[in-house]
């Protein structure tokens, strides 16, 4: 039976996958907000990505209704979420919602996503309108755009005050992994997140694979949440810059496109950044990202 023959109100089993890495209080706040979801047919699996101390045990003690996976090592965003996805599919999930642990959701957030995901057969994954947690009326994400040839991706509406200018549902270049609902059909068709990325650009790559398989990636503005933004890595940190430079080139390569121009562009960017920021460490992280791409070093930065 096709998805389009099912009623929009029918309950599908959704597994919410939340990845925790040294974020006990943020994860707890996220889980508390999930308890208020009006869409009721869901289960939550928390994947602890080898946090320090006993965070996994503390989460289990605070939230007896969650399912918990404790990893022995940090597998990054891609590997950690894949562990949760595998568990969800083994438990019979109809869809999987990847949700950042440093978010707080609105009660209708999941229901809006489920409704749109199953409204037609050609939608592969859907995502939310996302605001900054500390600036609750300022947008962080209202759909994603991608320049595949240059290996660039960005957020529509970022840092804009929300006055309804992004309230139209639309198909977009990619959906951020901060809030990404994926059907079981898609996961069995295109596979899970590519662990070569480890962190950053894995969601862009995944959405590109969904689109190349003939499905849409759709932004659903009725689904809303608030994001504390990069608590685990930090925008413009040395690790962030390394992964952005390396993985953006890997993304272009996986599309079968030439990386010659993107490499030259990134070299120019790091030179301009060095002149502007006068940070040797930042320039070195970016240089190392390019170099590790060239020598095919994938996965975690070691």
Automatic annotation (TrEMBL):
> Where do transmembrane segments lie in this chain?
none
Q: Where is the Glycosyltransferase 2-like domain?
A: 16-187
Output the InterPro entries linked to this UniProt entry.
Glyco_trans_2-like, Nucleotide-diphossugar_trans
Gene Ontology molecular functions: glycosyltransferase activity
Q: Which Pfam families match?
A: Glycos_transf_2
CDD domains named among the record's database cross-references: GT_2_like_c (cd04186)
Q: Which UniProt keywords apply?
A: Glycosyltransferase, Transferase
Q: Which PANTHER family match?
A: GALACTOFURANOSYLTRANSFERASE GLFT2, RHAMNOSYLTRANSFERASE WBBL
Q: What does the similarity note say? A: Belongs to the glycosyltransferase 2 family.
Name of the molecule in the record: Glycosyl transferase, family 2
Upper classification of the source organism reads:
Bacteria, Pseudomonadati, Thermodesulfobacteriota, Desulfuromonadia, Desulfuromonadales
């Amino acid at each position: 039976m096709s998805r389009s023959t099912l009623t929009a109100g029918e309950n599908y089993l959704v597994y919410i996958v939340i990845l925790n890495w040294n974020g006990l209080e943020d994860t707890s706040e996220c889980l508390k907000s999930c308890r208020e979801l009006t869409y009721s047919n869901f289960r939550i699996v928390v994947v602890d990505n080898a946090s320090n101390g006993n965070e996994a045990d503390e989460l289990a003690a605070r939230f007896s209704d969650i399912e918990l996976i404790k990893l022995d090592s940090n597998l990054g965003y891609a590997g950690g979420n894949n562990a949760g996805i595998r568990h969800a599919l083994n438990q019979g999930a109809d869809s999987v919602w990847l949700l950042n642990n440093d978010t707080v959701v609105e009660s209708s957030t999941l229901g809006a996503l489920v409704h749109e995901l199953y409204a037609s057969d050609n939608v592969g994954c859907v995502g939310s309108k996302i605001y900054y947690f500390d600036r609750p009326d300022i947008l962080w994400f209202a759909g994603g755009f991608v320049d595949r040839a240059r290996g660039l991706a960005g957020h529509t509406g970022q840092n804009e005050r929300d006055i309804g200018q992004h309230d139209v549902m639309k198909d977009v270049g990619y959906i951020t992994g901060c809030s990404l609902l994926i059907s079981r059909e898609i996961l069995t068709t295109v596979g899970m997140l590519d662990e070569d990325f480890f962190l950053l650009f894995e969601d862009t790559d995944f959405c590109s694979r969904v689109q190349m398989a003939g499905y849409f990636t759709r932004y659903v503005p009725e689904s809303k949440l608030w994001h504390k933004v990069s608590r685990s890595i930090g925008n413009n940190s040395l690790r962030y810059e390394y992964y952005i430079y390396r993985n953006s080139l890997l993304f272009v390569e996986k599309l079968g496109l030439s990386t010659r121009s993107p490499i030259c562009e990134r070299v120019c960017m790091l030179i301009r950044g060095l002149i502007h920021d006068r940070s040797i460490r930042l320039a070195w992280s970016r240089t190392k990202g390019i170099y590790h791409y060239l020598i095919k070093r994938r996965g975690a930065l070691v």
